[in-house]
Design goal:
There is one protein chain. This protein is an alpha/beta fold. Helices cover 45% and strands 15% of the residues. The chain has two domains: 216 residues, TIM Barrel (Alpha-Beta Barrel); 40 residues, no CATH class. It has twelve helices and ten strands. The strands form two sheets. It has an eight-stranded parallel sheet. Strands 9-10 form a two-stranded antiparallel ribbon. α2 links the parallel β2 and β3.
Length: 269
């Protein structure tokens, strides 16, 4: 099944409604109004009210929402708010069971589980196969804390590579869209962000979670195929004309190669 490629998913704090429109104008493929980690406990209800007021006053806006985790007292109220027509889908933090995912799916919206614990990793196969899940991602900081990893260390990256493999494997087995890499916490490290985006693409990920609007352009530029790759892809698609297999530039072109050409063209700005 073909899925829309999401290169960038930008978080915006739910208690900063003056930033909602700016986030939507950033060029991000998805904007996530964050009701969870970015919002203090005392502001949870007000943040949700800000979201609903913005959507009521901006009927053309379409956002995703990171709700509070399943055990949080505001979780069900957040899910109820997500039934608003302006909400496209739900990011479910600290997802740890198929039942939690199904409860979010019951809103009628697409759901993206965020893997942030060992329990979440263990339940990943069942969650990935829950109807209504669009794709998978993970939270490197919370997951690293749960697993006892030292953030930024080579050892932590080796362990996180196992997580990335699991996300990619179960995305493919469940016929989901390509997964999203976790955030790069340093806002001003454009070179590091570019490197992370290219590494994510090399590993089969579609893009990254972003925490600042200026990260979006860096991610898109890093993920954009070269002009040579785009030219090759265009010639492959032009030449296939419904044929199952053919030769181009002395190389055999068949279904997997044609699929790669389509993916490259989908990443063109």
């Amino acid at each position: 099944m073909e899925h829309k490629t999401i290169r960038s998913a930008l978080f915006v704090p739910g208690d900063r409604p003056e930033r909602f429109a700016k986030a939507l104008a950033s060029g991000a493929d998805v904007v996530i109004v964050d009701l969870e980690d970015a919002v203090e406990e005392s502001q949870k209800i007000q943040a949700r009210e800000h979201l609903l007021a913005f959507l009521d006053n901006t009927p053309e806006a379409r956002v995703w929402v990171r709700v509070n985790m399943a055990s949080h007292v505001e979780h069900d109220n957040d899910l109820q708010a997500c039934r608003h027509s302006g909400v496209e889908g739900i990011f479910l933090p600290k997802a740890e069971s198929r039942a939690q995912v199904q409860h979010a799916v019951d809103t009628g919206k697409s759901v993206i589980p965020i893997i942030e614990s060992a329990l979440g990793l263990a339940a990943l196969p069942a969650m990935a196969k829950t109807s209504g899940v669009l794709l998978l991602t993970y939270g490197r900081l919370d997951l690293g804390l749960d697993l006892g990893l030292i953030e930024g260390s080579q050892g932590a990256e080796r362990m996180l590579d196992h997580v990335r493999y699991e996300l990619l494997l179960h995305s493919r087995l469940a016929d989901l869209a390509m997964p999203l890499e976790s955030v790069v916490p340093s806002i001003d490290n454009a070179a590091g962000l570019e490197q992370a985006a290219r590494a994510a693409a090399d590993m089969g990920f579609a893009g990254l979670l972003c925490i600042h609007p200026k990260q979006v352009a860096v991610v898109h530029a890093a993920l954009r195929p070269s002009e040579a790759d785009l030219d090759w892809a265009e010639r492959v698609i032009a030449a296939c004309d419904g044929r199952g297999a053919f030769r181009l530039d002395g190389a055999m072109i068949d279904a997997p190669v044609i699929a790669r050409a389509h993916r490259l063209l989908a990443l063109r700005d």
